[in-house]
Amino acid sequence: MKSKKNIKIAISIVSLVILMFTVGCSNVNGNSNDKQSTVASDNSKNKASNQSSSEVSTSKGDLNGKVAKIDGNNITIIKTNEKKGSVSMPKKGSAAATQNMTTFQVSNDTAVTVRTSANKGMDNKDAAGTISDIKEDSMLMVWGKKDGDVFKATKVLVYVFK
After folding, report:
1. Are 89 and 64 in contact (CB under 8 A)?
2. Could you tell me if residue 71 is left (phi over 0), alpha (psi between -120 and 50 degrees) or otherwise beta?
3. Residue 41 resides in a domain
C-alpha cells in the first residue's frame, strides 16, 4: 500500500516539474508588447569599418536609440539599454518604451552622418546627411549638450541597414 502511495506522489511531483518547465519555456519564447528585444553588440567588428571623409566618432553617443516620433526639430527616441555586451530596447508602443523615451532638438547646425551598414555590420559606409535623413524607426547615436531642460544635438549618426 505504502509503495503505491509513494509512486503516486513521485509521479505527481515529476508531472508538476514538467508542467512548470513547459510553462517557463513558453513565457521565454512568447513575444508580448512589454518584452524587450535583445541584440548582441559586436562593436569591435564595426570599429574596423570603412569610413568616408565624413569621420564619425566611434565612441558611444550621449543618446542612443530608435526614433519614435518626429515633431519639427524635436525628435523623440526610445533609448537603448546596454548590459553585459548586449543591447536591448523595449518595443515601440509598450509601457516600458513610454518610460524609456527622451527628446532631443536638432538645428541647422546639427551635423548629420548616414552610416549604411551591410553584410551584418561588417561593411559600413559613412556619408554626409541632412536632418531629413532622420526618419521614424531609424536607429541613432546622438552627441550634444543639455541646455536647461532641452538636449541639443550637435552630431547625429543615422544607421541604415541593408
Report:
1. no
2. beta
3. no
Q: Contact at 8 Å (CB) between 156 and 110?
A: yes
The verdict on 12 and 68 lying in the same domain is no
Residues 19 and 73 in one domain: no
pLDDT average, residue stretch 88-117: 85
The residue count for the chain: 162
Cβ contact 106:75 at 8 Å: yes
Task: Work out the mean pLDDT of the chain and round it to a whole number.
Answer: 76
Could you list the residue range(s) of the whole structural domain that residue 24 is in?
Answer: 1-30
d(CA 81, CA 15): 38
> How high is the pLDDT of residue 114?
96
Q: Give 9-20 pLDDT, tens digit per residue.
A: 777 776 666 656
DSSP state of 94: S
Same domain as 153, residue 114: yes
